[in-house]
Specification:
globular; three-stranded antiparallel β-sheet
Amino acid sequence: MTDAVCPTCNEEFKRVGSHWANGSCPYPRIPPRKQEMILGLLMGDGSIPTQPDGRNGVFHVPMVNRQFLEWYDNRMGLFTTGVSLKKTAEELAENNRESGFSPNAKAENYHDMYSVWSRGHPYFTRLRGWYESGTKRIPADFELTPKMAKFWYISDGFLDVDRNRTPRAEIRTHTESDRSEFLLDLFREHGFDPNFRRGTVRFSRDETRSFLNWMGTPPPGFEYKWVLDSRERYDRLKAQAYGEAHVL
């Protein structure tokens, strides 16, 4: 865990989260722009595991896209603790072989998995409310913003790329597949009209460009998910993001 300076007392701590937890200084407020990023990721790959002994919640983001996680960790500042290796490609392949999920899994077809953990914070404790039903669920009164949508899209979204047609943006959300109208309404509130099929929010090919523009500039590591006009550029940026540029 990296050293961090408490913004209240300006002292440096190895475990600044413990400094806040024991009441020496108040927890710093997480700015709204960071909260939007967190909420978007929580809609996707992010999670808030149960903490023992009444400790404050922590936010966990696992991904194979290390470039993005380095950027995300930098943007979160003292609220996160750095990028760490979660599992190697070989370990992931071995796990899938042993579980029977993919009996012939080979490491060459996997990527190393990395993760970023936050420090404990009351904000993440409050977000544990998303798990009241026993599984993660987006609150019924949730209001989507372009930035939240962006970080949901980079996490669970993709471009349905066909060499003969313009790509279309889609977002997979199998855990919310019983709430299709709720999910579609999140976007209808902003003038979009996607459809829902097989656990996936699907934008039309004509609407995809407007949707991508609405979300704004992609973060580092996910530029390829915004490329509509060049399959070659899409493939190149995707390969670079996952350390595969040599295969092109």
